[in-house]
Design brief:
By secondary structure, the protein is mainly α. It has 20 helices and three strands.
């Protein structure tokens, strides 16, 4: 029941807190309650837009942002949200025009807003446009390490490795604790075969800083080759544990089947038949078979494996969760998407099981084997 004792600002503040916790459903319910009392509160319409956007409800999000802009055509957060929604609909020219309007209104000094716009463009592959907004942020606050690092990421994506290296070093000089920039720079230097410099930066990170296996593998390799650390050195144990968390060990049967498939594809049909005959006895003893083309395998971060169609895999994950059996698949995916956003800051769609699983894999929350 709506409470008349709450102001529109209090509704907005409480909903914002719920949003930051990844609790989009409750945030949306609170905002809608507030709008029942304060239908002309622009901030509440904007809040609804971002809650809808987080739930991949793009049409509803667009409507909320447009309603906010009817009330206040120059509201910068509504313009940013509308621009991001337009990108989701593939309306790039309109989105770019909407974002540019924010600059025209004089909000270039709003660093968080510039980074928000830049990240939205970056996620959609509009890297050159994203870089422009990151650079606007840097021009306003040159000592902002996050903004400087974002310019470096964009430079790398645009093929300017030398410029990216210089920029990322500047970001780290501004904030030596910026682990994401260090990891990115370490991988960039490794690719450029500057191995000692790569080791210097990767060696200053902690296992929990990494959400990708590549940097860890490279750090372990460089420690062994440059510091003469042996494979069983205790100092590597924490990194091996982190690797296990990020990517549980592959099933030996899967590796065998993949090897057989690769060999067969590289040889003529007759040679492939010969190879399959050699491994026939082994394959007969294996209990785990390669899934048909319409079936898939997913490994969770806890190492648990799920096989079946995309929908069957999500159902299995739901049933394995503590309270999942009481939920529909849609409710389970929405809850997991909120948890994933809280952990990684990445939006995970819930419109269908395949999109949900692929985005979860991109966020590092699970691994798709096939």
């Amino acid at each position: 029941m709506p409470s008349p004792f709450l102001s529109s600002e209090e509704y907005d503040e409480r909903a914002h807190q719920l949003y930051n916790e990844g609790n989009y459903d409750d945030a949306l319910a609170l905002l809608r309650e507030g709008l029942g009392l304060y239908p002309n509160a622009v901030e509440l319409h904007v809040g609804v837009g971002y809650a809808r956007l987080a739930r991949d409800e793009f049409a509803w999000a667009r409507r909320a942002f447009e309603e906010a802009l009817v009330l206040d055509p120059e509201h910068e957060d509504a313009l940013a949200g509308l621009g991001e929604t337009l990108l989701k609909f593939g309306q790039t020219p309109q989105a770019l025009k909407t974002f540019h309007r924010i600059l025209e209104l004089g909000y270039a000094d709003d660093i968080e807003l510039m980074l928000q716009v830049g990240r939205a463009l970056f996620r959609e592959g509009l890297v050159a446009d994203a870089k422009d907004y990151f650079e606007v942020a840097v021009q306003q606050v040159p000592e902002n390490a996050e903004a400087v690092a974002m310019v470096g990421y964009a430079q790398h994506r645009l093929g300017d490795d030398a410029g990216a290296e210089e920029t990322l070093k500047r970001a780290i000089a501004l904030d030596p604790e910026h682990s994401e920039a260090r990891i990115y720079l370490g991988n960039l230097l490794y690719d450029r075969e500057q191995f000692e410099a790569a080791l210097y930066h990767l060696d200053q990170t902690k296992p929990e800083d990494h959400w990708d296996e590549l940097g860890i593998w490279r750090l372990m390799e460089l420690r062994k080759s440059h510091l003469r650390i042996k494979d069983d050195d205790p100092s590597l144990r924490v990194w091996e544990e982190r690797l296990t968390e990020l990517a549980p060990p592959a099933d030996p049967v899967e590796e065998m089947l993949a090897e057989i498939e690769a060999r067969a594809s590289e040889q003529q049909q007759e040679e492939a038949r010969t190879q399959l005959e050699l491994f026939g006895a082994l394959l007969a003893d294996l209990t785990d078979r390669k899934a048909p083309p319409d079936l898939h395998r997913v490994v969770g971060r806890d190492g648990r494996r799920y096989d079946g169609t995309w929908e069957q895999i999500v159902a299995g994950m739901r049933d394995a969760s503590a309270s999942g059996q009481a939920r529909t698949l849609e409710e389970f995916m929405q809850a997991e998407a909120r948890r994933g956003f809280a952990l990684t800051g990445m939006l995970i769609p819930t419109r269908d099981a395949e999109s949900f699983l692929r985005a979860s894999a991109d966020a590092g929350l699970l691994r798709i084997v096939h």
